[in-house]
Amino acid sequence: MIWAKPMGALTAPLVFLGLAAFLILFNVFGLETALAARLLAHYQAALPVTAPVRPLPLRLVETFWLLAVGGGAIWLLRLGILWAGVAAMGGIGLSAWTGWVTYLHFHRLFDAASVSLALLLLLIVMVGTWALSLWLARMSLRLAFADSLPAASIEKIVRRPELLKADGEVRDCTYLVCGVRGLAGLGADFRSDPAAFTKLMQRMLSPLMDQALQHGGTIDRLTADGFAAFWNAPLDDPSHATHACEAASGMAAMAARVNDALMGQTRADGSPLPLLEIGVGVATGPVIAGAFGGHGRMGYSVNGEAVTLATRIQALSHQYGPAVIVADATRAAADRSFAFLEVDTVAGGAGEPPVTLFAILGNPVLKASPKFRALTTFHDHIFQALRKQQWRQARALIEQCRKLSGASPRLYDLHLNRIGYYESSPPGENWDGAFRPILK
Known about the structure:
Layout: H1 11-26, H2 31-46, E1 54-55, H3 60-76, H4 81-106, E2 108-109, H5 112-145, H6 151-159, E3 169-180, H7 183-189, H8 194-214, E4 218-222, E5 226-231, H9 240-262, E6 278-294, E7 297-303, H10 305-316, E8 324-327, H11 328-333, E9 339-346, E10 355-362, H12 364-367, H13 370-387, H14 391-401, H15 409-424
Parallel strand pairs: 1-2, 6-8
Antiparallel strand pairs: 3-5, 3-6, 4-5, 6-7, 8-10, 9-10
């Protein structure tokens, strides 16, 4: 995603203010004399004064007054056009009052008409440039974030650009990686019909990306087989883990709908279209969020351990069966809203801490069901046996668990193979329960 800052809304008002001050100070076009005569005639008609009335010396007071009030209005433009308008209109009223007081008490002519006209035109310039800058900012942000941010988030950033902290900041984010499993095999199968392959991937990925946007996520990057998204940046989202899990669950449901639509459809050669399987990895943790890039091409993104972990989880997800796999931190933050089932404990290497992984199987209704409770109880016993290196007991529990509703044969085959590996290569007495070779 690439964006450019639009022209600021302060340049044109500052230029106009300087020009107006110059005209009032030096009376280049002779306008001040005519306006002063009209003002003086008005005052004399309202309240005749016998003493002679003279203009203020060198028109310095009017110039200073215009610069002070106009400069203040331009400064307040940073807070919003409403504040700038109040300052400009207040300056016009004060100019008239000042002209009356100086005429009545000091018999001096303060050219309120010229100052008021200049302030009124300045207000028009400020409104015009503010509206133009707002439109340019909106167009720039829409071009930059149209495919990566929800429309409501774009509007918030347009109105408050300071929300988009491009310089970088540390935020606690939830990162999601979604991909189609088995892309290499699919690509080889469609080698003779690449157009059909790209169309098939678009049919699957477009509704999945829509799910991320609908749940407040920011699309990060696109790849041939999927995309990534994150929550709680650039805008605050206190429930970012829950929203990411909602998007992930929606992706799993949407993938099933797309596959239902693909059933019965054929390719150009008459062969049936393959059904696609997706994998989603979700992780939560601190990241650095900001603008990354160079050579005039900047993109807002995040970087941190959560990004790496989510990518790893997505790569491992095909081994567990369920589409959505989350890290323990994500599960802890969204535990009330979903039915999570422990599926594995992994680590990248000997020096890395273990990470417990969970599958999202449903909503709180499923979580409260007796079948799911039985399944979670069996899983607790299975992983306790694995951590205690009680391989025989773990095998027996897995075989019993296969018969329960919601069980994943692929997951249990994985752990049975792991048990065989552990029996030939014992993990040692101080083993923390994490299977490390899988991520090397």
